[in-house]
Design a protein that fits this description.
The chain has 544 residues and is mostly helical. The protein is 53% helix and 5% strand. It contains 26 helices and seven strands. The chain has helices at 55-63, 84-107, 118-127, 133-148, 166-173, 180-192, 197-200, 202-212, 215-222, 226-233, 282-293, 299-310, 329-340, 342-351, 358-372, 380-387, 393-396, 403-421, 423-432, 436-445, 454-467, 471-483, 492-500, 511-518, 523-530, 533-543; strands spanning 3-6, 22-26, 40-44, 47-48, 69-72, 323-325, 377-379. Strands 4-3-5 form a three-stranded antiparallel beta sheet, with helices on one face. α3 (118-127) packs across α18 (403-421), α13 packs across α14 and α13 (329-340) crosses α15.
């Protein structure tokens, strides 16, 4: 009611848009919806409409009640031409996000601030309220220096110490065969009393590296000698939540120019016992601190750093190595998805008559990743690492049957975190019927590209790949809504229009990442957000 549709023009020479059912004009009550003329009718009650759909069929479907019509807004004047693959990715991404939000709202109970999980996150948010980025940065640096302080020489030992640092004593007392070569070298240094001054005082070494705050320079320092390798690089890639990764280095941090392989492999110890004070090694926290608070990686080192950070996350592959262009992304993605979750991939494709629409999402996202890295191609091991656990690109881009429940949990985490850190904005969204998780799903599938500059997206990706956790994206989503709060105080139409007009946001360079780092979201908090939620969703799904 209240809308006139123009029939498709099927004559020769017409454009693709002219060969569609289009909204010609609106009048009450449809005009109150502020629908744009020439919008393309895509579906009626989720049944696809195309140029050969007769008017009688359109009338029959519209007469059914309730009726749901899906339109695509017309292109703006001067808008760039979008490729067919990009358009397919955008459509499927929007459709998958709608399904995720439907599952979230129907299968999970509303949030209550006096009950978990929101109550627990609110308590954590209250602890960090008012803490600036500078304060967080200084606290993390102090904790790191405290962790490495016991590695140095024991002043109480007096002459018996003979300049031997404590970390050397632990290595010499170790029995693992992987440290035999390092023990021989350290014994020789001890006999010659030839320990480098900074090797005797790791706290001073780490203080200098924190001042430098350049991940590439830190890695190169670790390659200068066996002692520095052990102090800086050994265990640097061990993920604190799973213990995955290793301290060895299979490729240079700049993609081959850093000769990490020149160091004897027997010296590359993954997890040496330094008396660490947390589940994350000091070496890991050093790189983490530099990525968060430093000036960022230089573009020429980025792909090499990603390869180094992802090394060990996937097993050996019999297929070719190297880099691939955008035309080959789909083949590499399918090969990797068939290894990581072949049953989920086959089950999904079998239910879609053999098609795999998630490939368009994956291809577009990988093109975005290559663009922010300043490259026309991506190394195969980077693509595989993004798809593999714990980065879970296969689930993110809907390439497995378990993608939906996983995406629902990602949206739930954003919902809880936004309710905790931006309560007024969250209540306003709920009152207006806006689902902030809808936009978050679409941002997440593209790693927030288009929201801020490529340089800032690259830094977010650096943290995501190194930490191997989606918490940086939850923090970024909450931070983005917080920065846009003053622009999101209108009704639902104004809010949605603002959120889609990214070119009018006017965010300063670097402000989003800084705001994200000020938002405390930990692995433990993410776990508490989803504990019991999956069981509740499964129970509700079974009951339905």
């Amino acid at each position: 009611r209240g809308g006139d549709l123009g029939e498709p023009q099927l004559t020769e020479g017409t454009t693709a848009r002219q060969r569609t059912w289009r909204l010609r004009a609106t009048h009450p009550p449809a005009s109150s919806l502020k629908m744009k003329e020439q919008s393309v009718l895509l579906a009626i009650n989720f049944a696809r409409v195309h140029e050969h759909t007769p008017r009688s069929e359109i009338a029959r479907r519209v007469s059914a009640r309730p009726v749901s019509l899906t339109f695509e807004n017309p292109a703006a004047d001067g808008a760039s031409v979008v490729s067919a693959s990009a358009l397919a990715a955008a459509r499927f991404g929007a459709a998958s996000a709608e399904v995720v939000i439907g599952e979230l709202r129907e299968k999970l109970k509303p949030l209550t601030k006096n009950e978990p999980p929101l109550s627990k996150v609110l308590a954590k948010a209250g602890e960090t309220k008012g803490v600036s980025a500078l304060g967080i940065r200084q606290r993390q640096a102090n904790l790191l220096l405290e962790a490495v302080s016991p590695w140095g020489c024991d002043a109480a030992a007096g002459a018996s110490c003979q300049g031997r640092p404590r970390w050397v004593s632990r290595v010499l007392a170790a029995t693992c065969t992987s440290m035999s070569a390092l023990r021989r070298r350290l014994a020789m240094c001890e006999a010659l009393e030839d320990f480098h001054l900074l090797a005797q005082s790791p706290e001073s070494l780490f203080r200098i590296l924190l001042f430098c705050a350049d991940p590439a320079a830190i890695a190169r320092t670790g390659l200068t000698c066996s002692s520095y390798f052990h102090l800086i690089l050994s265990g640097a890639r061990v993920c604190p939540s799973t213990g995955s990764g290793s301290g060895s280095s299979s490729s240079g941090i700049d993609g081959g120019n850093c000769a990490a392989d020149s160091v004897d492999s027997s010296d590359k110890v993954a997890e040496a016992d330094f008396g660490r004070t947390s589940t994350a090694s000091p070496q890991y926290r050093l790189f983490q601190w530099a990525l968060r608070w430093g000036s960022g990686l230089q573009p020429k080192y980025r792909l090499g750093f990603w390869r180094w950070a992802l090394a060990g996350t996937v097993g050996p592959w019999p297929s070719r190595e190297g880099a691939v262009s955008a035309d080959e992304y789909a083949d590499v993605v399918l090969d990797a998805a068939a290894v990581f979750d072949r049953f989920g991939l086959l089950g999904l494709c079998a239910g879609l008559a053999g098609s795999c629409p998630g490939l368009s999402l994956a291809k577009r996202a990988l093109e975005d990743v290559a663009a922010v890295a300043g490259s026309d191609s991506l190394p195969i091991d980077v693509i595989r690492g993004l798809l593999a656990p714990p980065l879970y690109g296969q689930r993110l881009w809907v390439l497995t049957g378990v993608a939906l429940p996983w995406l629902v949990m990602q949206a739930r985490c954003l919902q809880i975190a936004l309710a905790a850190y931006e309560p007024q904005l969250f209540r306003h969204f709920m009152a207006e019927g806006v689902a902030p998780e809808l936009l978050y799903c679409q941002w997440l599938q593209r790693f927030f590209r288009g929201c801020v500059s490529d340089a800032e997206v690259a830094r977010i990706l650096d943290i995501f790949i190194f930490e191997r956790s989606h918490k940086i994206f939850v923090r970024t989503g909450v931070a983005l809504y917080g920065l846009l709060e003053s622009k999101l105080r209108g009704d639902v139409d104004q809010i949605v229009e603002t959120l889609y007009r990214t070119d009018e946001w006017g965010l300063e360079e670097g402000v989003l990442l800084q705001r994200a780092l000020e938002t405390k979201i930990t692995r433990a908090m993410l776990s508490s957000m989803t504990i019991g939620e999956e069981a509740e969703r499964s129970c509700n799904a079974g009951g339905a």
